[in-house]
Design goal:
two-stranded antiparallel ribbon, alpha/beta, Rossmann fold, about 325 residues
């Protein structure tokens, strides 16, 4: 009986050990699940001086709470919103693949016709003198405190009116960002350099009628409420080249499909400036799918390429660039000191 009893106790011990192992495994799994952020794009609200402002936040699935990820702010154009920018740019899918947090703030305005106060444009936000700089300051403070953000890798990009705001943030909040990128946006003659260097990318199409590549008022002057004409895209790049103390003799030009990229790398603190000119590109966020296979190139566009001494590439008539991918590849090379 003694031997049987000892065998019985051993079996019970094994069962208890098995149950304990199961419980431990379950608890570990729960802790791992609790230590990871796995959420779709969510909407957060901030009270800014009694005004409720909203922002969409997308964190990559399975992000650990102790991670420190890059943060990309994406600003919509006038009459658009954060949700549309998420759909148009595909940044959330890119963020999942590359491992960064992407945020789509919403501007202000009636009935969903939202805009940003970029100083010389646009619409409701400009007319009401909305404090969008204050909003972004509060938003960044909240994001850093509430999400696994690396403060040295915060970036801003924007389209059209959102691109204008991105330039303003680069000037007024230079030290909060590691780099900025502007797509079909504008700078204005009244803007002055911040002094501190900042890496900048500008993407602009030569056929943009809303914010002309060569500068000026554009087709929507009255509707947008602009108070001064935009400077040319090349002059906007020159603004940042001068601010960043770049050696212009270091500039190099490459051509790929309908995109001509002029990069000036020898700048203070490595704050390079890149101007991407989209030949015949219109007022839009460039995506591969949006570019037709049969790309018609004007004589002016051909002259623009020829002036660089480069041959006209055989694939000029194929699809163009993916702005989101191009912007992210620029961002990930820059970390704020």
């Amino acid at each position: 009986m003694g031997e049987v009893h000892r065998e019985f106790r051993g079996t019970e011990s094994s069962r208890c050990a098995g149950r304990l192992a199961t419980v431990v495994a379950f608890l570990v799994a729960m802790l791992l699940a609790a230590s990871a952020i796995a959420r779709a794009t969510e909407t957060i609200e901030l009270d800014i001086d009694g005004v409720l402002r909203t922002t969409l936040v997308h964190v990559p699935a399975n992000t650990a709470l102790d991670d420190r990820l890059p943060l990309v702010l994406v600003f919509h154009g006038s009459a658009l919103n954060g949700r549309l920018m998420e759909e148009i740019t595909g940044f959330s899918e890119l963020a999942d693949r590359e491992g960064f947090i992407v945020v789509y703030p919403n501007g202000s305005g009636p009935q969903g016709v939202l805009s940003w106060n970029a100083g010389s444009c646009c619409s409701f936000a400009l007319e009401r003198e909305v404090d969008d700089l204050g909003f972004i300051d509060s938003l960044l403070d909240h994001l850093i405190a509430s999400y696994p953000v690396d403060p040295a890798r915060i970036y801003a990009t924007g389209f059209s009116n959102g691109g204008m705001l991105t330039h303003v943030l680069g000037i007024e909040r230079t030290t909060r960002f590691a780099a900025i990128a502007v797509v079909s946006g504008a700078m204005f003659p009244s803007q002055t350099p911040p002094g501190d260097p900042l890496p900048v990318m500008i993407i602009h199409g030569t056929a943009d009628a809303v914010i002309p590549y060569v500068g000026g008022w554009g087709a929507l002057r009255t509707l947008s409420g602009k108070t001064e004409p935009a400077v040319a895209a090349a002059d906007a790049a020159g603004f940042w080249i001068g601010n960043n103390g770049c050696d212009e003799s270091s500039a190099e030009t490459t051509v790929e499909r309908n995109a001509q990229a002029r990069r000036t790398p020898a700048c203070s603190g490595g704050a390079e400036v890149v101007l991407v000119t989209l030949l015949e590109g219109g007022h839009a966020w460039p995506t591969i799918a949006a570019n037709p296979d049969a790309f018609l190139v004007s004589d002016d566009a051909v002259d623009l390429i020829s002036s660089t001494g480069e041959e006209i590439p055989w694939d000029l008539f194929e699809v163009g660039i993916d702005a989101s991918r191009t912007v992210w590849e620029f961002f990930r090379n820059h970390v704020r000191p």
